[in-house]
Design a protein that fits this description.
The protein is an alpha+beta fold and about 150 residues long. It folds into two domains: about 100 residues, no CATH class; about 35 residues, no CATH class. About 60% of the residues lie in helices and about 20% in strands. It has a four-stranded antiparallel sheet. Helix 3 packs across helix 5. The chain is globular, with a radius of gyration of 18 Å. About 25% of the residues are buried. The protein binds zinc ion.
Length: about 150
């Protein structure tokens, strides 16, 4: 199960924490497609946001759950002060949008089922599917390479 983040992160919460101006700027950042990646882990969300200025490094942003609420950091000047910046708002919105899309396809239920069956059954099942569908097999190989290159 997705612990922490899923229960705390809501659009309204982010809007209140960010304030209207930062929220609006984060929303523009998200809708402009500047979120390059967004990954949810245990009680945290990490993402990369493309800069608008040429030559600037992408912003690395992180949002996590603490006992007293949410904490944030980002490589932009606002985020370095551990304040909620537009980039962190953008990855939060990207995460919420993906959750919404997953729920509409029933993928949230599938996620829970896959987590429940666990490692060995999951591997056997995926190999079975890959035998029947070579394209899926190739996609799975790419997924593994991606994951291994990050680790
Ligand atoms: Zn930032």
């Amino acid at each position: 199960m997705d612990t922490g983040i899923a229960n705390i992160l809501h659009r309204g919460t982010i809007a209140v924490l960010a304030g209207a101006r930062t929220f609006e700027r984060g929303e523009r950042c998200f809708t402009a497609g500047r979120v390059a990646s967004c990954e949810a882990g245990r009680g945290e969300l990490r993402g990369v946001v493309r800069p608008t200025e040429a030559g600037r490094a992408p912003y690395q942003t992180r949002l996590w759950v603490r006992a007293d609420g949410l904490a944030y950091e980002c490589t932009c000047p606002v985020g370095l002060e551990r304040l909620l910046c537009k980039h962190t708002v953008a990855i939060a919105l990207a995460h919420l949008e993906r959750q919404r899309a997953d729920a509409s396809q029933g993928l949230d239920v599938l996620r829970q089922a896959l987590e429940a069956i666990g490692g060995a059954a999951l591997i056997d099942g995926l190999l079975g599917l890959a035998r029947r569908d070579p394209e899926l097999g190739d996609a799975l190989k790419r997924m593994c390479l991606d994951a291994l290159s990050k680790g």
